[in-house]
Amino acid sequence: STPLTYLSFHLLGNNYWGLRFVIPLLSIIIIFFLFRIADKELYSKTHKTFIIILLLTDFYFFTFSRFQTPQIYSILAISFALLCFYSINDIYKRIFIVSFLSISSVLFVYVYNIFFVFGVLLYFLIYIIENKNIKLFYCLILGCLTSFFLFLIALYFMGFTLLDYFELFINFNEKRSAISIDVNSGVLNFISSALSNFFSILYTNLFRFNSIWLFFLVFGLVNRIQLFLEKGFKLKSADLLLFVIIFAFCQAMFLNSYPFKKWIVLLPIVFCYGIEFFKRLSLHSLNILVIPSLLTFPIIINSYRLNNSSEYWDGFNYCLLYTSPSPRDKRQ
């Protein structure tokens, strides 16, 4: 994000225009990337129109698209990686480019994107093992190493070393621990905090303000379990989304600062799950909606309970500070 922000400041000045002007432009590019995926994967114009309108009218994404935060760059990087995954037919090029982009999303964009790296690597490793092609493994390693070497070059031109990079995180962690789990209060508290962090993704603002994204996520997970039970495990393209989501939940157990805000980076993943939903809907009856709907509804209710509790709204209640004095107080 630093180079684009630097350029924006020089073009538009050290003000809000310079700070935020590039963000709506990046948001438009994100919409274009996701639209290209939907346009390629969906054949029904109705389905394409619905999912794009859903994205364009999403309250939280619209709000997020006006602020300078690392997450908008993460969404951009992940969206571009998914576009390449769905669009590139040559498997050698696909593995090289997507692995390169996944590593770059951490080194050049935001370290919290590590869940995306693990999801991509696991998917391609299983694919390589199933196809028994060592050349694909070389492409995977080459993509990762290319990103890493370019990162070293970028550090050199900025006047830093790899050791300086690691020290930055070490010093930051000493001031404010990045670990979001209770490790000092016994095993039960450790497990309790880990589970709370694990399920916190379901109650983030991404799903809180748009329950359809949540339904797409639940449908994708339920559908994959059903296919596994019926036909056993055989790798599918949608499993990339599954592995990324699994590692996102696992990461949330330990690294989960500002979860209500940060997990908007999953927007491209749930968008693609929406595409997978419509692809399945075209082949099956509406019966496939029953179980995901039954599972989604209690999550929505619990999210409402958590996010709209009395403790939550008491933080916005300023009336007590400005109550008019009682008659007795006036007499005094």
Describe the protein's topology:
Blueprint: H1 2-12, H2 16-20, H3 22-41, H4 45-56, H5 59-64, H6 70-87, H7 91-109, H8 114-131, H9 134-157, H10 162-175, H11 187-200, H12 205-208, H13 211-231, H14 239-254, H15 259-262, H16 267-281, H17 290-307, H18 310-314, H19 327-331
Helix pairs in contact: 3-4, 3-6, 3-16, 4-16, 6-7, 7-8, 7-9, 8-9, 8-14, 11-14, 13-16, 13-17
Strand content: under 5%
How many helices? The count is 19
What class do helices, strands and sheet pairing give? mainly alpha
How are helices and strands ordered from N to C?
Answer: HHHHHHHHHHHHHHHHHHH
- The unreliable regions are 315-324, 326-332
Number of strands: 0
* Terminal-residue CA separation: 60 Å
Report Rg.
23 Å
Mean pLDDT: 83
Can you summarize the main beta sheet? none
Shape: globular
> What's the helical proportion of residues?
over 70%
